[in-house]
Predict the structure.
Amino acid sequence: MALTGVEIFKLLPKTNCKKCGQPTCLAFAMKLAQRQVSLDQCPDVSEESKQKLGEASAPPIRPVTLGAGTRAVKMGEETVLFRHEKKFVNPCAFAVKIEDTLSEADAAKKIDEVLASEIDRVGQKLRVDAMFLSNDSGDAAKLEALAKLAAQKAPDVPVIISTVNPDAAGAALGHFSGKNAVLYGANAGNLPAMAEKAKAAKAALGIAAKNLDELSDLTEKAKGLGIEDMVIDSGARKAGEILRDNTYIRRAALKKGIKQVGYPVINFAERGDEMLESLVAGLAVKKYGSIVVLGAVRKWKDLVLFSLRQNIYTDPQVPMQVQQKVYKIGEPGPKSPFLITTNFSLTYFIVSGEIENCKVPCRLAVMDSEGLSVLTAWAAGKFTASRISQFITESGIGEELEQKELIIPGYVAILSGAIEDKLPGWKITVGPREANGLPAFLKARA
Amino acid sequence: MPFTPPKESYNGKIFELALGSGEKALAIGGENVLSFHGFEGSTPRKPVIAMEVQDIAPADWPQTVQDVYKDVSGDPVAWALHCQDKLGAEAIALRLTGTHPDKGDISAEQAAATVKKVLEAIKVPLIILGSNHAEKDTAVLVKAAEAAKGSNCVIGKAQEANYKTIAAAAMANDLKLIAMSELDINLSKQLNILITQMGFDREKLITDPMCSALSYGLEYTYSVMERIKLAALAQNDPVLQPPMLADAGMYVWKVKETQAPEAGLPEWGSLAERGIAWEAVTASSFLVSGADMLIMRHPAAVEAVKKFIAEMEV
Ligand code: B12
Ligand code: SF4
């Protein structure tokens, strides 16, 4: 149970020495209760208090890292139930299931698909994050062969080993030492042995419970066995069960401080019907999954799920923005077209993407409009004739151009006259409304 | 160690709204918990998916969606019956696109005649939508409302710029009304207040907080819906208690992801599935965030969302 500010205060030295940067111990205690400061900022706190407070000040959902190196994925540490309250912290990981019953060629194909899944989207590189190696055969040798293949072909891709057999687990994990793998499949029947294997390989332990009661029982026992990092599965499989259990888990961890369920959640979305699979995976993205297991990699499904995850995990207060400046696309010369847009990431990447695709070198002025889209910025008075002309003048870009011509988005055609008035010597041209009209428009001019 | 589920209960409840008449009549809303949270309260009605039909052939829809309706889309009655009888639509949303000044400028009288014909042909509830041209919609929806008198169907959308006329028409002809504002809980609240101040019964309203497509503002609609639902339930704010609508199809089928062929963008994968998934993921996201009713276009996307709704029952 999280401690209140006053409870924390009782455990502090009460000297008001200010070494923590706060005016008083009470002020520090209040901030600690809200997790705005960390306990180690007070140098004088006693060992005994430290232990008591350490427990209480730990994040309600434990941070766990899946994988190592550049592809490592951070999970947990969430602080709210609804994204409008505060940004969701660590985007969920997508893992694709690879069964050890597949032929080596089929398994290799799936691994290749994971490696080839990367897509550039709104400036972020997104991909299927992990492989879920599943011991469907029940045969330890088969799981190990698959583990070996995966470790060889995709050494940097994070791995979740799924088995209920501790011996199989040990052998497979051997291929991922130092890689922060997850060993999934610890249950009431095998917990101590699985915990041993996970500890030996420094892997997180994936608890596979049948229901929420059993889940909190198993995590408690695993903790007693010295396991710190866990990933939890309540046994929910149907979409409605996933919503119910994930909601209970998130609420219990955040609102009630119940440590037994304060871990990242793993959800299973694989369905024979891949359209339905996309929707169930989407539910897990929105409602508190940290690892979402999929049945197969498909490019269309990746794009949909990556986009959804990006939407759900954006900061509700600050839209994604790019820096204000004149960007060069290709190698524009003095005669190349010059266009303007707003600094909303989505707008910038759509427009620059279309220009890149049609291979006409251009200059693209991106104006700070507080991250708003063209029409929103116009409606909000951030993309107006006077602001645009001021930006163009200050950029000095006119010097680089043979003819001073500015192409504006079709949706703000209404601004063209006013900009022309404010930018003497410039010609204002109205471009197409949608960015996908740009290639034809630019090619026709070239 | 037993786990005590931290259940939430609320004082507020979403109004239950009856649509249509006869054996295919429906109701939406009535829940006293967040969407699909039947595990801690009451969710008496399943969300409803209305399939979109237009008064004119949908020339601006991507080919992939035009094709599935190519045998019927020239005739709104045939199209509506196809959706009802062949595709199992629970409701039809008739969008009077052709009345838009840029898309044929069909007269209000002619539009009303189309409404009448469709209403006579179908058994499922009808949702009548204008062309989203605030001015023209006032004329069109007034006539359309007269044509639909007594059918207990839905008409919309009333917006800040034109709500007075449209709300009055809905009231005079005893129809349910969609009130649409622009992605802001306070604007939504304000519009609902203005409409009820005219004497319109708030239990006959449907709130449309304005939809958006996946990757094109979905997170805004998603969060506005969650906030409206929470305010309706937790703060028991009656102004925000009408059921919510997500008019998803029209936003989805104009974005590039539902149109660009795979040849130019191999990393985006199959266009057919990508488009359907784009609509189904967008629509199902709004069900999760609070919508009680959807308007959708592609039958395969509708099918997927129906399966999702079925799986959400526990
Ligand atoms: C999400 C959204 C918001 C979000 C903001 C999102 C953001 N970061 O901008 C929020 C909720 C904050 C918002 C607020 C408002 N919004 Co708003 N919003 C939208 C919505 C749904 C999507 C906008 C979007 O993301 N578009 C996607 C981007 C990529 O589009 P884009 O920037 O226009 O770029 C496209 C083209 O313009 C073109 N393009 C871009 N640059 C260039 C450059 C050149 C040279 C060329 C040729 C082409 C080109 O290519 C792109 C793709 O085709 C639209 C409705 C809609 N579906 O469009 C309304 C919309 C833009 N909003 C609108 C309004 C009125 C507002 C508000 C004033 C109302 C309110 N709710 O308070 C406020 C103003 C904001 C403020 N701070 O005061 C209106 C604008 C009406 C108008 N015609 O002027 C719209 C159109 C909704 C409507 N139908 O009424 N909004
Ligand atoms: S450093 Fe510790 S003892 Fe000093 S004021 Fe801060 S909390 Fe109190």
Q: What stands out?
A: Chain B has a mean pLDDT of 97. The longest helix of chain B spans residues 271-289. Chain B touches chain A through 54 residues (CB under 8 Å). Residues 280 and 301 of chain B are 5 Å apart (CA to CA).
